Every structure is written in structure tokens, then in C-alpha cells.
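can u do me a favor
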């Protein structure tokens, strides 16, 4: 059936029809999710390029070990910036999509908490969340949303140094979040990848996992990625512009198909 749709419809219609046929949907978002015109809003390094999970001078265990105060000052600055950010129309569109589906998972590489702020509920944050803070020694963790920490924050349980709760380059993903993601990918029948950075593992592996489990794959990205070749539906558009259009088209299609009262 997908082949029939592909012949007769543009990418927006293809994705809309795939969503309508889906019973278990995974949406996977990354930094490119924000792209409206080529501008990335957060975590740019000095050259304006994305690098691994943030800025390589600050987002690594090595940088933290060398100068934790410098890393904390940078993260506190990022938190101040992100605190001012509001969810985009694309974030709210995914909330609408979740409300339309019986089974929906939102897996994300983003760490700014904006999916939660928009109202998304079933969110798997693969790389953690900038508002989380945890101990470098014990299992203490806390939510520090809207709190400013100094550049030498200490654990209230063991007095060791606290660190940002995000995942840094080369670190394993949080086991619980990774397990939740795998369960979703093994169950879903459609996976829509939106602005995912496939250079950061295990993004590509997760997408391959969904493919192996039989899901239809769709990709919305301003440029081809490492998994473009295995995607059934490909859309070369800035996600920040096109995602709201897709959800509007989806709602129109559902409304048109519904029997009139
Ligand atoms: Zn501790």
C-alpha cells in the first residue's frame, strides 16, 4: 500500500497516510528539529557547528575533570538561555500528534526539556536533560529547573561534586531510557525521524532496530543522513517549518474522512 501512496502523493501526504495507518508510532527528534531556516538555537560551539552532544570544550568528562568550575559556568549560562526559550509550533504539533494516537513514544536527542514544556507526555530523553543534576560519586540526583547553582555545587548526601545530568561524548546512555527506547522501537509500526543527528551513536542503531523489527521509516531533515537510504519516506525540508504543516494536513484528512453527524 505504501508504494501506491508514494506514486500518487508528495512527501507530506505520504507521511500523513503513514500516520493514519499506524497504530504504534515513534517520533525521534534531534537538534535539527528546531531548524526553520538553518539557524540552530542551542549548544553551538564557537564555530557555530554542532559537535557530539554539545560544545566539545565543555561537554565531556575530560573537560569536567580538568576544570569543573569552567564547565559549570558554561552550563549555568546555557540554562539561563534555555530558560528563556519557549516551545516552537513544531513542539506543540507533536503534542497534538500524541493526543491523536493510541500508542505514541517521543524519543529525543535534545536536552533542553522543551518537549516536556510543550506538554508531550511519553518522552524518552536519550541524552538526559539539562535541568537534571547528579552526584559524581553516589546515586543522588535532583531537578534543578529554574535554579542557579554555583560553580562548585556539592552533593547533600556525600559532599562530592555534582555534575550536569546530561550525557557527554563517549558516555553510555542512561540504561532506563535506552531500554524504554528499545521497547518502543521493537513495538512501533512507524518511526518518523525528525532532524536526528545520526552521527551520534546509537541514533543510527536505534533506527536500524526499528527497521529490523518491521517498522516503516520516514525521515524529515534538511539534508541526507546516514540512514536516508533505508527510509521509506524522505522529506528534504527544514523540520521547524514542515512539521506543523504535516499535523494540519493530518487533522484535515481525519476530519474529511470522519462521517458527518
Ligand atoms: Zn553524592
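np, heres the sequence
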Amino acid at each position: 500500500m505504501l508504494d501506491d501512496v508514494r506514486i500518487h502523493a508528495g512527501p507530506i501526504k505520504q507521511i500523513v497516510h503513514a500516520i493514519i495507518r499506524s497504530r504504534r508510532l515513534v517520533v525521534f527528534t534531534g537538534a535539527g528539529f528546531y531548524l526553520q531556516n538553518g539557524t540552530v538555537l542551542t549548544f553551538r560551539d564557537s564555530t557555530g557547528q554542532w559537535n557530539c552532544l554539545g560544545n566539545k570544550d565543555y561537554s565531556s568528562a575530560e573537560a569536567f575533570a580538568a576544570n569543573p568550575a569552567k564547565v559549570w559556568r558554561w552550563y549555568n549560562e546555557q540554562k539561563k538561555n534555555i530558560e528563556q526559550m519557549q516551545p516552537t509550533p513544531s513542539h506543540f504539533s507533536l503534542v497534538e500528534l500524541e493526543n491523536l494516537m493510541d500508542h505514541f513514544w517521543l524519543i529525543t536527542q535534545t536536552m533542553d526539556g522543551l518537549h516536556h514544556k510543550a506538554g508531550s507526555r511519553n518522552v524518552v530523553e536519550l541524552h538526559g536533560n539539562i535541568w537534571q543534576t547528579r552526584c559524581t560519586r553516589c546515586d543522588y540526583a535532583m531537578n534543578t529547573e529554574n535554579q542557579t547553582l554555583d560553580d562548585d555545587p556539592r552533593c547533600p548526601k556525600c559532599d562530592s561534586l555534582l555534575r550536569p545530568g546530561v550525557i557527554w561524548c563517549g558516555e553510555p546512555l542512561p540504561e532506563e531510557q535506552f531500554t524504554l527506547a528499545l521497547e518502543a522501537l521493537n513495538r512501533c509500526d512507524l518511526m518518523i525521524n525528525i532532524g536526528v543527528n545520526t552521527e551520534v551513536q546509537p541514533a543510527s542503531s536505534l533506527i536500524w532496530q526499528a527497521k529490523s523489527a518491521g517498522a516503516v521509516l520516514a525521515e524529515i531533515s534538511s539534508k541526507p543522513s546516514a540512514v536516508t537510504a533505508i527510509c521509506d519516506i524522505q522529506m528534504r525540508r527544514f523540520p521547524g517549518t514542515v512539521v506543523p504543516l504535516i499535523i494540519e494536513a493530518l487533522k484535515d484528512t481525519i476530519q474529511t474522512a470522519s462521517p458527518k453527524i
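The mean pLDDT is 86. hope that helps!!
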